[in-house]
Amino acid sequence: MPKYLPIVMTLIIVGLAAYFVVSKKNEHKKIEKVSVSKEANINTIGTFSKQKTCSVPPQFLKQMKIPQPVIIDLSQKRFKGIALHHGKEFNQTLHPKIWEQYEHFSTYAVDTKGNIYLVPTPFISILPTTFNLQKNLYKLDSNTGKISIFMHFDDVHPSANNPYGLNAIVYDCDDSTLWAAAIDESDYSSQKGVIYHIDLQTKEVLQKIEGFDVLSMVLLKSDKGKFLLVGSARDNGLHAYRIIENKLEDKAVKLLELPHANEHIRKIKIIANNQLELQSIPFSYTLIAQTAKQDRTIHTAIYKKDIENWSVYIQ
Amino acid sequence: MSKETKLSIGLLLVGMLLLAVYWFLPQDVATSNSVMPKKTVEERVILPQYEKSIYQNIPQVQSYLADLKKNIQKGEAVLPLQENELDSDGRKVQNILLKDAEFLKDTKQGSTLLHNDMMRILPAIVSSMDVKTKNICQEHTCYQAEKYNFVTNTTTRAIVNVETSDVLSVEHYAGMQPDISLRLTHIAQAIALHAPEVKKELGFTPRKKDITMANVRGTMKESPCENTTHLCVAPTFTDHRKEQALWAVVDLTELKLAAAKWAGLGKTTTPACISERSLQNRYIMENYCQKDSYLEKNGWKITYRLTGSDGLEIRDVLFHGKKVLTSAKIVDWHVSYQQKGGEKLDTTTETYIEGRRVEFVRGEEGDYLFGYNDAMGCPLFSTSVVLAFNGPQVRALKNNDGFMLTQDFRNPKWPMACNYRYENRFEFYDDGAFRVVGVNKGRGCGDTALYRPVMRIDMDIGTKETFWSMNKGAWQVKPQEFKEKVPNTKPYAYKITSSHAASKGYYIESNHGQFNDKSRGDNARIFVTKFAQKEGDQDLLTLGSCCKLEEEGVERYVDDTVSIKAEDLVVWYVPHVRNDAKEGREYCWADTFIGDDGNVEIKVWPCTVGPKFIPIKGGE
Fold it and tell me: ipTM > 0.85?
């Protein structure tokens, strides 16, 4: 037996070494897995509260002695372009013909001086000018009440296969900049939407993030930092980009999904502490395809801190 | 050194070497033998190919429909739960609620009874009670009942104190759908098992045991169709070996298979919410918008595809190997409405009807016209407003003398007011004739509509072409591009022939109502132009005005100085169709009513237009 002792000892040593190596390697693998899932589990943007807006009403309304509040109407239902409703029960409307010159708008943002920035939208029929109009960001001047092209985007190319261009906007009170989005480059197989961060003074694009089709956006501050919340044009999800030192992080994380697959978030409002109102529409990168009395579904999304998750209800 | 020691050193070196190699190998390679990579299952959508009538012979469906009718005839709107779904308290609760005015509040529209089903009756669940009810039910036996209104898509939930027979609460939830009854579960299973598409996909005739029951319950609750006004569930056939499942979406409002989808198993690939519309959109985009399809039948060889705004297009059509068409499609539907009172019309501001901006044009004698242009096309990434439903379908012609390739386009809310439904149809006859057909199925915004589908037909007879018109009994060559109203000349007002041989080509037969499809004729205008790539060979955006009745939009391509003798020709054909909503005379119209089973039924009075091309035979 002593004769074979070296062989036995060697086999034991190799076996022990093999056990050590395999278990060490698998431990390494486990750690990787945990870190991946932890990374993926950042759908908690933390708790947040309703924020005060820094926007002020357009100054020309004062000159025209139109009292607040005023409703900004971009619904297309009765007025092309923009209309402002005011007075008792909002039964008076300001809608000069000149506000129709750039056709239809989908959403707006108001700055600290009362300027209204508008993004375009195609509507029902495609006219020879429709695609070009989708390449511009518009400004309704606070003092003069005139609408003009604020910025033209050469890299926005609407087409028959996707008639949309710039389509979402939000004003950042922290640094007086605009966040805007375009979805013109996207097609059925690839998502090539762009988010622009724009300096209002210099009209310079400070940052450009590619690869996400945004249908709506809002800025939110929570106990975990500042976020750009975006409604997706491609799915029924609400996603969040973290903003660090005025820069958007590259990747968005999905916070929640609406109950119905074909609903896309068109408007996001922070309505109370840890509570959002999400207005959704069916969206398919085509022109408006149906007429119905109620064309939006309104959801309430509540962030539940204790379980770090969201509950979504249809209102 | 002994032989054993040498062997030990050898073993040690080899062992260490192998361990070193293992340590430095990439993780996935190192574990490839022990951990199989996850199989990726390709998700695939299957759309129904059959009418819903094939499900009405299923015994469970038959008996359900018969019970519904009997119930309505008895003057009762709510179909009660069957005995086997109730215990004695449940029976008592059902009897109480079927007489309770508040519970039955939404079961009538005027005097018309609406289809309602009692879905379940069970001991009350605390979470569905308010504090007051909860206090009562802690001391007494309470049951909760849920019914579903199929017409209004509303769920009603009631809590009943069984001991005192008091109805403690009744709540109506619009747009919400409950868990379904056992009877409907069995019907859903029966429809899924009966569906020919499911059998074909599975490759065998499935039985009840093949349906994954756990998934059925879970999915039934959470799988509304995209059209959320319908109650849909998704029985599932699971193949654990291949790690995939076939989800059959069954529409219980219409009692039919709505769609099916292959998906992988597990949380990441299992659709949490299968939606009929999303499945349709994906299927249509991937199969008909992103690539051409091919059809060979009865001697015909056809390439076809769905366009962004020009509906269904057929291309490169051959009959027994001979060229017939380069392209045919309907590029636009001009829709206009005629109204009196044009003299008072204020056109300085835009007008919207049901959310659509409309164009106004002054007409004659104080009339005015308003309307818009409807483009048909792919359901995603397009400029269409009336979207493709299902894919193109091939069907036999009524007289069995050929087949048709047809595509349905709809606004999802059709037949509500100001929503439209069109059909693009191409008929191919066994004798080599073909017909380009536009079908309008209403409903539009009113009963004074004029519909004008703009058809573009790019012929290809194999050589250059010549166009002829019948004039005083003799054929005359049309020398230049032209437009004119199609005369009532029978049998044929026009022919298009090879420029080399007048005996080779097609007569053009306008529709005067002779095709036995209840059509009232085309009343068309025709344009013939020399082919130009930019004039509609690719997708055309909105063409012309909706409402200038003297213009079809094609005028921009007609130059009466351009010769069309021995050229590649394009025929533009624009029928003018007036709708009618008068009872007994309906045309291009659709309406909804409550049927004798309490469900919504849609009645359609289509109008069918378009010219037929008949091959010239003999040596004319």
Answer: no
